[in-house]
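Data follows
____________
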Amino acid sequence: MPTQPADPPTRTATAAGDQARTEPPEPTRHHPALLAEQARRADDVQLRIADKITAFAGSMNFVYLHIALFTIWMLFIESKPWPTLTLIVSLEAIFLSTFVMIGQNRQAAFQQAKADHDFTEQELELKTNTKLTREIHTLTTELHNRLLDTPTQRPS
């Protein structure tokens, strides 16, 4: 997977507004499911090849290459190019549709991993919040009981 270039340093004004300081950019954070999927794909040669083919097939260079090849084929290689050209284009469409399905499967696997991770994190957050709410309730009840149950001292 290609890496993204680092963001340039940002300039922020100080409270007085008369000076500016340069701060390093915050590192780009990625979802753990994305990092796991990238690592899995980087380890598999077939998936790396499929990614490169899919990236090329989805680019304008792919379109330009085909315009040039089809033009050369029709003008210079065959006088009646349609049967052979149709066969070649049909075979290419079959392979490209396979790469599209590979990409869709990859996206579906990533979305499922992300959804599973998010669900787990949300469940943990819910449990933590529930525990904290119960503790706050217990402390509030205890504080309330101490304040109301304390006998008041009357002057004699």
Summary: DSSP finds four helices and two strands in the chain. Strands lie at 10-13, 20-23. The CA atoms of residues 21 and 96 lie 51 Å apart. The chain has a mean pLDDT of 81.
